[in-house]
Design brief:
With 67 residues, the protein is an all-alpha fold. The protein contains four helices and no strands. The longest helix is centred in the first third of the chain and has 10 residues.
Length: 67
């Protein structure tokens, strides 16, 4: 199996500003994505995937590469 390595997120203030100003997007910061994943706050995510892959951070969960 090929390992993709850890995910790296970056803040891009100009893009964040444009997306937020649009009013249709929620932009998460690198700190939020690096924070712990709390399944109760994300009920629409597959409980099977969460139980199988045991992501540790929110970023690992939302931007997974295990599929």
């Amino acid at each position: 199996m090929r390992e993709a390595g850890p995910l790296t997120f970056v803040d891009f203030p100009k893009l964040t500003g444009a997306l937020v100003d649009n009013g249709r997007f929620v932009v998460l910061t690198t700190d939020e994505l690096a924070g712990p994943f709390k399944a109760a706050e994300w009920p629409a995510l597959s409980s099977y995937d969460v139980q199988s892959w045991k992501p540790e951070t929110l970023g690992e969960t939302l931007y997974n590469y295990w599929d």
